[in-house]
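Hey, I was hoping to borrow your eyes for a little while. I'm sending you its amino acid sequence along with the backbone structure tokens. Take your time with it, there's no hurry, and the full record follows here.
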Amino acid sequence: MSPSPEQAAFPEAFAAALREPRSAIPARLAARPGVDPAVRFAIYRNNMAAGLGRVLADRFPVLRRLLGADFFAALTDAFIRQHPPAGPVLLEYGALFPNFVERFPPSQHLAYLADVARLEWLRHCALLAADAAPIDRAALAAQPPDVMARLRFTLHPSLAILRSPFPIVSIWRANIDPANPAVVPAGLPGENALLVRPGLVAEIHAVPASRADFVERLQAGVALGDATNLVGADLTAALAFLLSAGILTGFFPVSDDAARRSDPA
């Protein structure tokens, strides 16, 4: 038997009432004798909002510290009403939060907050990314120079780069440990954040723009020889960083023609 129009509309009405504290409870909602359905529904609504608020607080701890608990709670309440979870997996909840922070009128004058939120979301994603073993350094070191130039690399699945006009790595480091807060000096330039999780901990590095470009070219499948112009004399230091940070996980040689075709420049 097909549901009646009223029955078909009930799930959306129920969800809409959960999102908006001032809305009426859904029609047809009942409770045992002597219990007000509105009171029961309010408890359910508050539990949902509190639970999602805790999820966002755990996911964006530095942003919460920067805003203060009360402001952050108001921000997350507004976000939850407009962007409830799209599915049952709460590990995926919060992807839209940084853009919401950027557009939230009470904090728009603090433009750096959205990039701090983006950094924290990428850190969360890095924690969920697949594991990968580090590259075989001995095998890499054994490659002849002419082969080395034609190598392509596989990079760690958790790798992400975020470029910001604000010193987001410095801000994050200064605020991640509530027991040891630090002051970020005024006037610091923007920073390029590189995130990777080679083990159990997601690491955040501030890297020069040239190194971020270099990593992105390797990630896109460009051969090493075609990407070296981005770092120039810094190639040895750049490769040492990629190895020590656990960013490189594998390599394979390609023909000269294929390497040239892989270079988007």
Notes: Residues 256-265 have pLDDT under 50 and may be disordered. The two ends are 61 Å apart (CA to CA). The first strand starts at residue 151 and ends at 155.
